[in-house]
Amino acid sequence: MNPVGGRSVRAHHPDYVIALIITVLLAIGLVMMYSISPILSHKLTGNSDRNYYFVNQIKYVVLGLAAWVVATAIPYTKWRVWAPRLLALAIAGLVGLLVPGLSHSSNGATRWIGIGSVSVQPAEILKLALILYLAAWFERHQKDVGSLWDGVLPFSIMVGAASFVIVVFQRDMGTMMVLALATIGMYFAAGMRWRHFGGLVGVGAVLGWGAVVAFPHRLSRLTTFLDPGKDLTGQGYHINQALIAIGSGGFFGLGLGRSIQVYGYLPEAANDSIYAIIAEEFGLIGSLAIVVLFGLLVYRGLQVARNAPDMFARLAAAGISLWLMFQAMINIGAMLAVLPLTGIPLPFISYGGTSLVISLFAAGILLNISKFTVREGASDLPGTARRPRGRSSLAAGRSTPRFGAARHLELSDANSR
To answer: Could you report the per-residue pLDDT of 45-66, keeping only the tens digit for each?
Structure first.
């Protein structure tokens, strides 16, 4: 049972399709790590551990699955209360990046806090924390969603401050783009006015352009994106090697374990560039399968948001789904040279620790919300009506009720705290 507005909503089964898709993506990631681990591990450790990447990825997956199970078991209503604490933890982690000896830099970016042999990326925690916090904030301020001063301005300050820290101190443009796009999408789903949406996107684009031109390495990436063949052995090397990997895969691919680019040609083969290796080994069929899986995952996640029993759940599910969608789009788009390189992992597939664990934890929250969707659980609720279709199914705060079921499931302020 889940308390909503003083009532107990009977839980039903979670969305098994979401769970299955994520499991398949994790399996693909493990298969790819097993395929490329001997070559990459030899470069990193010599002959001492030829399965370094594969074994570590198994560890990360096990830890992430544990986080997934825990998050699935925790009632999503708890995060309405815990979101500010999680956000405070993420902010403390970002502050820790400024502490010498505690932070760790790589490739010109300071993104990790190292404690012994354990390293954590605070920005990954921030993505989930800010999504949950904004979901609770929008719910508390439903009447202010359409206001410029009481809605758009506070939202802009919160997201702008987070983006500034990520871009300037972490030098992580990709994470900032994912966070900004996902949270703006949440605001739009909450009922943002079209003129405010257009203005916010316009201002964000201008500030994003400023963040690019203010840092030479970002400007160089942009010019390389506009003309990939200009400097084949320099700035254009990474994207050109990715395109060679994708092109050489053809329709069916070279076969598992037969990648050529992994032999030191393609940078970050296990991380940011894993999609190019998949395309090389499994061809167009394999690379399209990845796109289809992410598309179906996002679709099911947005369906969970659409049928969630209250505004907090709707926006939290929408935010998590949009986060995964934009991160996958940016990673895959960069490998296909339709977007500039940003250096973010492909969710559930790329090698990595914090990103994988936090993504699985977020997926667990999404699955918990899916256990209380109104449409599937409608038989347990008296007088439940079918929800209308359209954008209004995610918005709230207007005079006309969004859902017949919502009339029976309104949250009281006391319960929301």
So the answer is: 666 677 888 999 999 999 999 9
* 85: CB partners within 8 A, 6+ apart: none
Pairing outcome for strands 109-115 and 2-4? unpaired
Note the pLDDT tens digit of each residue in 271-320: 899 999 999 999 999 999 999 999 999 999 999 999 999 999 999 999 99
Closest CA to 324 of 354, 351, 299: 299
Q: Quote the number of domains for the chain.
A: 1
The two three-digit tokens of residue 12, written as one number:
């039903």
Residue 33 tokens read as: 């790590």
Q: Which residues contact 126 (CB under 8 A, 6 or more apart)?
A: 87, 90, 91, 93, 94, 162, 166, 179
Question: For 329-359, what is each residue's pLDDT tens digit?
Answer: 999 999 998 988 888 899 999 998 889 999 9
Contact 4, 77 (CB under 8 A): yes
Parent domain of 46: 2-416
The answer to whether the CB of 337 falls within 8 A of the CB of 243 is yes
**Cβ-defined contacts of 195-200 (< 8 Å, 24+):** 196/146, 196/148, 196/151, 196/152, 199/152, 200/152, 200/156
In whole angstroms, what is the distance from residue 326 CA to residue 178 CA? 6
Matching residue, tokens 């320099």? 234
* Tokens 């990648």 sit on residue: 259
Supply 96's token pair: 């820790």
β-pairing, 7-9 vs 2-4, is antiparallel
Q: Which amino acid is at 124?
A: E
| DSSP-H helix ranges across 49-107 | 52-73, 78-96
Give residue 9's pLDDT.
63
In 3-state terms, what secondary structure has residue 120?
A: strand
> The tokens 């502050």 sit on which residue?
95
Residue 139 and residue 148 in contact, taking contact as beta carbons nearer than 8 Å: no
Residues facing 327 on adjacent strands: none
